[in-house]
Amino acid sequence: MQHNNLLKVAIIGxxxxxxxxxxxxxxxxxxxCVLFIGRSADSKGLSRARNLGVRxxxxxxxxxxxxxxxxxxxxDATSASQHLIHxxxxxxxxxxxxxLTPAKLGGFCIPSININAxxxxxxxxxxxxxxxxxxPIIKSMSDICQNILRVELTSYLAEDSVGQGTIDNIDExxxxxxxxxxxxxxxxxxxxxxxxxxxxxxxxxxxNIRFHLDSINLxxxxxxxxxxxxxxxxxVPGYQINGTPKFNQGVFDVSISVSGQGDWLPIHAxxxxxxxxxxxxxxxxLAKFNESNRIKMQNKKNTRTPEFS
Length: 309
What we know:
With 309 residues, this protein is α/β, with parallel strands linked by helices.
């Protein structure tokens, strides 16, 4: 049974990313998925959604136009080029959008850093899986270490956890991740790489972050990273810092692993899990904010001084 006060959301994009996201929305106590949208009626994602009792459509963006009065927020899990087409339509109908593509139209959102972005903008961008895994760590480092000369970021993913959309948008992936790193950390010299494991070995998502700097206060850094880790794990339970980050001859290395929750793809697909968990965190923040305002308005209405004639 759905509750009237839940945030009414739609998901556009019925591939691996969107279908995994659907499972997370259905678990949420704050979100109600009113529509799951794809382009092919016989897609695996739409079939699974129907089996889960979710309303579906294969009409792509036209479904949003038809249901505009019944949607508070849309998760766009399509592609960067498609989001450029979708965004003006979301804006026209005053529907908030959480963009899971690297289109980079809306402001960046990293939940452990600027979760209020969802309250301040009608279109926010969740950067990339590499961005979500690395930027909180890079931000913590840049707040403490003012002498970071360069950051190198490499993410390693199992081939079967990477959809065609990521491959098609690989240039946007690199540029969006690098731009977001610079925006949050003010580090200008950034290199981003993505490596796919094509063998039968299926590793969890692994992100290695290498900082080049002259000196470091390890006590302060370790404390900051531990605090950041606990923040991220509140919405990404499979997020871990591997071992103890080391500083050696001007280089500080941090290794991150992310395991998924096995909702749609296997547990090793942490790259899907982390960006979807970030999107859910942002949507739930909006839902809680709206509900808090509703309660305040109701209490204010109930406590008004009665008028006597």
